[in-house]
Amino acid sequence: MVATAATSSFFPVTPSPDSSDSKKKRLGNGSINLGGIKSKTSSSGNLQVKANAQAPPKINGTKVVTPPAEVFKNEDGVSFHPPRTFINQLPDWSMLLAAITTVFLAAEKQWMMLDWKPKRPDTLIDPFGIGKIVQDGLVFRQNFSIRSYEIGADQTASIETVMNHLQETALNHVRSAGLLVDGFGSTPEMCKKNLIWVVTRMQVVVDRYPTWGNVVQVDTWVSASGKNCMRRDWLVRDSKTGEVLTRASSIWVMMNKVTRRLSKMPEEVRGEIEPYFMNSEPVVAEDSCKLVKLDDSSAEFVRKGLTPRWSDLDVNQHVNNVKYIGWILESAPLPILETHELSSMTLEYRRECGRDSVLQSLTAVSDNGTDEIECQHLLRLEDGSEVMRGRTQWRPKNAKISGNVGQIPADTA
């Protein structure tokens, strides 16, 4: 008996006609429920078999059609299901595949929901989508793609393009920190006291100029400088290779927007900006050489009649500091511009100029007996008042540069 049961579980046994007849006799005229199949005899005496009807299941909104169960008929036309065996008890693979698909879709949806969770503080993306705060919230990072209208005759980005990137990241840093209210970088307390930031000194070292299509990564941070000043540094890299392209350091002071006079830093303002200060050395070593004051006798090249356009004014109603750089290069001799490229510059901003100012650009060239050239510059008003002093250094074009490896200084405060 046990052997028979085991054999029948693996091999189906075809019922004999006699057994079917006896089974039919036992059914009689009544009704019986066998494993979900309901059979009854109609008034005409024919045996009818009906399966319990169920609506086709749905998975992810799609109807899944299951194949009908295999049904056999004997010689008398009576329908019956085959015995339960190992083969016909295997799972429905289409249903299993649909279940696995459902699990994966649910997991994917859950993963997408996790992406909306807040990021770590050291990688917060600013709400304006223009950069991100890194290194414990002290460094602002932004990428720029070099456009075709930002390159010059040398097929590289101009120095004005580089300086505009530095200025843009400085402002976006303040805005991302939530301190920008009005004017260029003015904090809430500065606005109450009619104070604005003005740059007094700028040092820039360019190891290589990017070309059209390059993407540069600009990092910027601020530090204390004396009692009433702030220093801002920049580090510009090639975003693909990590090569350092430009390093820059600047000193900023406060000026009263109404009186146009320099002002001490109020304690309320200091309390706003000190949490963002890094305790670090300047990314460019301070140039200790004094800038020469040029006059008509010492200047070799003079360009007169320079006037600002309306588009040269910033929101504080004075000429943008990047425009000054273009003005001092107006008097640079053309042979130098054709054979050399600007490698570094030191600028001292003496006073601002407005829409009605008329300026003169003076340049003197120093011959040091090498391939590199040094120039002294002065930008002044027609009445002789100094606007800016500067010194630029030039290297031959296509010269091989042993680039300095620049790093963002670690905060040691």
UniProtKB/TrEMBL annotation:
This enzyme's EC code(s): 3.1.2.-
Subcellular location: Plastid, Chloroplast
Signal peptide boundaries: none
Protein family according to the UniProt entry: Belongs to the acyl-ACP thioesterase family.
Renumbered residue ranges of the record's region Disordered: 1-45
Keyword Magnesium found: no
Gene3D superfamilies the UniProt entry points to: Hotdog Thioesterase (3.10.129.10)
Biased composition, class Low complexity, residue ranges: 7-19
Role description: Plays an essential role in chain termination during de novo fatty acid synthesis.
One protein family per Pfam: Acyl-ACP_TE
Top-level division of the source organism's lineage: Eukaryota
GO terms of molecular function: acyl carrier activity; fatty acyl-[ACP] hydrolase activity
InterPro entries, alphabetized: Acyl-ACP-thioesterase_N, Acyl-ACP_TE_C, Acyl-ACP_thioesterase_NHD, FATA/B, HotDog_dom_sf
GO cellular component terms attached to this protein's record: chloroplast
Domain Acyl-ACP thioesterase-like C-terminal: 299-395
Alphabetical UniProt keywords: Chloroplast, Fatty acid biosynthesis, Fatty acid metabolism, Hydrolase, Lipid biosynthesis, Lipid metabolism, Plastid, Transit peptide
Residues annotated as domain Acyl-ACP-thioesterase N-terminal: 1-126
Protein name: Acyl-[acyl-carrier-protein] hydrolase
UniProt domain Acyl-ACP thioesterase N-terminal hotdog: residue ranges: 137-272
Keyword Transit peptide: yes
